[in-house]
Design goal:
alpha+beta, 1 helix, four-stranded antiparallel beta sheet, single chain, 129 residues
Length: 129
């Protein structure tokens, strides 16, 4: 009796297809998880700027600035001014935006902070006062 040990070509193909599908699923999920992480980083940065404007700047000055930066919001971690794509607030390509409103002589009564997200709608914060 001839007994051959090993795998048939069909078994190898089935295992290869199954492994390929698992790898494809893994990379799709990893991409989604990475995008959600970047979105959370964006929300964290917008929240930090928002609370710095409300709890620090507005309480000290009684108005909001026409522009925000590391210079006038020193309590914000400097790394938060750069979005996950590497663009700083104010750059045209940045996913962060600050829009002042109702301004006179550099003193504003309102503002809108936004971050454009990958997996959710735009994250928006408005002035509290």
């Amino acid at each position: 009796m001839d007994s051959k040990k090993g795998f048939t070509i069909l078994e190898i193909i089935v295992v290869g297809v199954f492994a390929s599908l698992l790898l494809l699923f893994f990379f799709i999920q990893k991409s989604n998880i990475d995008a959600f992480d970047r979105d959370e980083d964006r929300k964290t940065a917008i929240n930090a700027m928002y609370y710095a404007l409300e709890e620090s700047f507005y309480k000290d000055h009684g108005y909001y600035p026409e522009q925000i930066s590391e210079d006038n919001l020193k309590v914000v971690d400097p790394s938060l001014w750069t979005d996950p794509s590497g663009h700083n607030l104010g750059d045209p390509e940045s996913s962060y935006s600050y829009t002042p409103a109702n301004c006179k002589d550099g003193k504003c009564k309102e503002y809108t902070l936004k971050s454009f997200l990958e997996k959710e709608d735009t994250y928006v914060k408005y002035n509290r006062n």
